[in-house]
Amino acid sequence: MDPLPNPAPLASKLRNTLVRYHSIGDGEWRVAKKTKDATIWRKPSEEFSGYLYKAQGVVEDVTNRIVDHIRPGPYRIDWDSLMTSMDIMETFEENCCVMRYTTAGQLWNIIAPREFVDFSYTTSYEDGLLTCGISLDYGDVRPNFVRGFNHPCGWFCVPLKDSPGHSLLTGYIQTELRGMLPQSAVDTAMSSTLANFYSDLKKALKT
User: Name one Pfam family in it (predicted).
Assistant: First the structure.
């Protein structure tokens, strides 16, 4: 198990990585799934042998409230159907923490429940916010869970210029689920999970 990293350089590196993903040209992405709430694209990841996913959709609410629902905190566990538990293990500053969370089994339990320990950082970006994270090798793995690993991931949320009560939410996700899994099952699960994330989030914001 690694010691906890110094948060400031890790946060800075993480932000720079996400901003770089955000500038990848449209031509490099291939559409993986399209729903009324979001479009999901993917491209081969530079970090591991799977894919980097990009998800984008317009959400009817102000940026701060949307990000409060996404980042580690009291809201996330209430609405995210994939997340089954979440604990904040360490808090460095108001916008920086280490969290441990677990996810439900997927695809009729072909994908067993997973556990992740992520460093999470929220910062300003243009007129909106970026909340991003990366997994750490920290803490003991709980029984009955496979420890997954999130390579740099994040959500950009910016207000729409012509409609300030709406925000454009763009996510970059590259999750290594680990364990013995067929890649096709992982790819199916990722696209569906990201599409469901938008519909679940929209429902939660309306309540």
Answer: START
- Express each pLDDT in 96-128 by its tens digit: 999 999 998 877 777 888 999 999 999 999 999
Model pLDDT for residues 36-46, shown as the tens digit of each residue: 999 999 999 99
Residue 52 to residue 173: CA distance in whole angstroms: 6
Domain 7-20+30-205: which topology? Answer: Alpha-D-Glucose-1,6-Bisphosphate; Chain A, domain 4 (3.30.530)
Helix (H) or strand (E) holding 102: strand 96-103
Alpha-carbon dihedral 156, 79, 10, 122, rounded to 10 degrees: 50
In the numeric block, which tokens belong to residue 144?
A: 């009955």
Separation of first and last alpha carbons in the chain:
41
pLDDT at residue number 163: 92
